[in-house]
Each structure stands twice: as C-alpha cells, then as structure tokens.
Design brief:
Distance between the termini: 76 Å
Order of helices and strands: HHHHHHHEEHHHHHHHHH
Helix content: over 70%
Number of helices: 16
Number of domains: 2
Strand order of the largest sheet: 1-2
Strand content: under 5%
Largest sheet: 2 strands, antiparallel
Radius of gyration: 30 Å
Shape: elongated
C-alpha cells in the first residue's frame, strides 16, 4: 500500500472510532435516564461495531462488498435475537417503549465507516447529529409528537410533493400558445406562493395560536388578506370588544399583501418589475401602516386590547387548491395574451381591475412570467390596478360583514388605495 494513503486512511479510521464512541456514550446516558438495564449496545459494543464496519468495507475494495453485507446480516441477526429476548421477558423493563432505538443506533454506528470514507463530511455529521438528537431530546420529541396533529403530517407531505416531487418533473418546454411561459414556471409559481402561505399558516396555528386581533391581521395577510378581512369583519360584528381593533388588523392584513406580492415578484426573478414596484408599494405600505398606527392609538381606550381573534387558519396546501392555482395561472396568461394582442395596455388595465375582484396572485404571476405585446410599464401598472381593485373588494367586505362605523376609516383608505394605484398606473403610461 502506498504510504501516502496512510495519513488520510488513519484520519478516517479515527473519525469513525470517535463518532461511534460518542454515539455509545449518548446511548448509555439515554438508558440511564430511562432507568433501563445496560443490555445490547454499550459504548464499547457500538465503538467495535463502527470499527468492524470500517474494516470490512475497506477489505472488500469493490462491489458487491460481500464481507460488509455479511457483517451487516450478522449484526441484524444479533439485534433481532436481542429484541426477541426482550419481548419474551416476563416483565418489560421500565421505559422500554423505545426498544428499537438502540438497534437503529447500532446500525448507524456500523454504517459510519462507509459514510466517512465515501460521503461528504457534512452528511456524516448530519447523520450523527440526528442520532444524538433522537437519544438526547426524547422529552421534547415526545411533547412535539403529542402536540402534532396527524393531519399536519399530511399537509407537510403535500408541500414536499409540490416542491420536491412535482417541480423537478415539470418540463422546461413552453405551454402551447404561451411561448414565454413554461410548465416549470407555472409550477414554480405554485411552489413559491404555497411556501409563503404555508409559513404564515404554521406561524398562525402553532407559534401564535392565541394571537391577538392585530397579530391575526399580520399573519392572516401572509396567506390571504381577503380571507383575513372576512374573518375579522365577521367577528367585529358579533364581538364589541374586537370592534375597535378589527379595522387596524384589516389594514395590517392589507399591508402584508403588499409585502407578500413584492416578495413573490422578487423571489421569482422579476427584478426589473420588483424595482419599479418598490416605490409605489412602499408608499402604499407606509400609508397603510401609518393609518393603522393612528387608529390603534385612538381606539385603544375603547377596545379590549388583548382580546384574541380565533379564526381557523385556512390550510393553503390542499392539492386541489394548488391545481386550481396552476389552472388559473394558465387561464389568466391566455386571457392576458389575447387582451393585450387586441386591446393593448388599455385592455390589460381593464382586465386587471376585473381580476382584482377575484384572486390576484395567479394573475400577477402569470402576467410577469409571460411575454405580452405591452411594455413593462403597462405590466407594472396592471399589477398596481389589480392590487388596488382587490383592496376595494376588501373594503366592501369589511363594511358589509361588520356593519360597524368603526370599520369606515379602514374601508375608506382601502378604497383610496385603488385611486392612488390608478393614478400611479396612469403616470406610468
């Protein structure tokens, strides 16, 4: 063997021994904390398992590595016998509910040698860290497991399907009839808005489950400012304590709409549009926050400042909703293509006003993703008009559903944002 190989090989062997020893120490501490007997998997046993895995992998030299596989089979048989012996014991040891955990740690220790020799260092470190966390954070993991509804596991799986499974399969070919929009662009928009909506949903449901009315507006605006406005207006109608805070929360939800839209536009790579929208969105955001602060100060004495709102956060990751978003993205792109071809910028602005009375996110993203027969100024103006039109819809919801005069200042401002957006769009043309 070449002597130049020895230092690197010795370092890899030392790393394997140290990591297996650390796993053994943590497993020993875990068993002591659970008041269990030592059983299989002492510190020495895990260290030797790591050494055996390293040596057998090194001796094999190439696939199919039968020596290593025979060693793995022997270790698996040993672990199975130990589990069977524990199961046959007349008295189950105290805290033995995690009987499989030592076996999994032993398999991890055996795999450390190949990991160290063939994989990047970060992967080996990550595998060991996960093993140590599973051993050392049992109380925390149990609390999280008890508090985690099974439905949320399905929700997470849906997000992983959207982002990790479907997105890589989307071809880069353009959608028929839409040369500027590819299937991958459509689904990337779905993933981007789902990620932001999902973050707001998780924050609302788990980080701040008893959020006050104002925080409800902020978090609700992350996944749907329109839905948050509807919820707040309905509760203001039936709860006098919320009536003074609901207008402020409604304005905060709209402020978050501007933040969400601008972030989506920037994250999806539309830098020029994001730069041109920074000033008008920034001014509208500042005006909305300023009015919210003024109403908050003047309504403090009449409100129950800590009165919590309890809207049920809408799960933004229902797969039918994702498919509907993708379909709307394409539909709006087709409609926009024909409108801009026949009617130009004026037709686009009329369309954006009408779309603002529905769901503006797929329209805005499809508008920015396509290459239509209008200039960038007309497209930016359409985004402004759609957001302003959507604010008009929220103003109508706020007044009609709350039936309270306290909601009037917020509704007036939301209507005024439409006029300001129209004026800015006209200035761009």
């Amino acid at each position: 063997m070449d002597a130049s190989v020895l230092p690197a090989l010795l370092l890899q062997f030392t790393a394997t021994v140290v990591l297996a020893f650390v796993l053994g120490l943590e497993l020993h501490g875990y068993r002591r904390a659970q008041d269990e007997g030592i059983g299989f998997g002492t510190t020495r046993t895990l260290t030797l398992a790591g050494v055996a895995g390293f040596v057998l992998w090194r001796l094999d030299g190439s696939a199919p590595r039968m020596l290593y596989l025979v060693g793995l089979a022997a270790l698996a048989l040993w672990l199975a016998v130990d589990l069977a012996r524990r199961a046959a014991a007349p008295v189950v040891p105290h805290g033995d509910g995690g009987a499989l955990l030592p076996a999994m740690i032993a398999l991890l220790a055996y795999a450390l040698g190949p990991l160290v020799m063939t994989q990047p260092g970060w992967l080996t470190a990550a595998a060991v860290v996960v093993g140590l966390l599973m051993l050392g954070e049992k109380p925390l993991i149990r609390r999280v497991s008890d508090a985690f509804p099974s439905a949320e596991g399905v929700t997470l799986a849906k997000f992983l399907i959207l982002a990790g499974l479907v997105l890589p399969l989307m071809p880069a070919a353009p959608v028929p009839g839409l040369p500027g929009i590819t299937y991958a662009k459509v689904w990337m928009a779905v993933v981007a808005i789902s990620a932001i909506s999902y973050a707001g949903y998780l924050a609302h449901r788990y980080l701040f489950p008893q959020a006050g009315t104002l925080l409800t507006g902020l978090l609700g605006g992350l996944y749907s400012s329109t839905a948050a406005t509807v919820v707040l207006a309905r509760q203001a109608r039936t709860d006098a304590g919320m009536a003074a805070q609901a207008p402020v929360a409604t304005l905060l939800a709209t402020a978050m709409m501007y933040v969400r839209l601008w972030s989506l536009i920037a994250l999806l790579g539309h830098t020029a549009a994001a730069l041109r929208l920074a000033l008008p969105f920034g001014l509208l955001l500042a005006g909305t926050l300023a009015l919210a602060a003024w109403l908050g100060r003047h309504g403090r004495d009449r409100s129950a400042a800590g009165a919590p709102a309890h809207p049920d956060p809408r799960n933004p990751l229902d797969l039918p909703v994702a498919f509907l978003f993708a379909a709307l993205f394409v539909v709006f792109a087709v409609v926009t293509r024909y409108v801009t071809a026949d009617y130009g910028a004026a037709g686009l602005h009329v369309l954006s006003f009408a779309v603002g009375l529905t769901d503006i996110d797929p329209f805005v993203l499809s508008l920015l993703a396509g290459h239509f027969r209008v200039g960038e100024a007309a497209i930016v103006g359409a985004v402004l008009i759609a957001s302003g039109s959507n604010n008009l819809l929220k103003a109508l919801y706020a007044l009609a559903l709350s039936r309270r005069r306290t909601m009037l200042p917020a509704a007036v401002w939301l209507g005024l944002t439409l006029l300001l957006s129209l004026a800015w769009a006209w200035r761009l043309t």
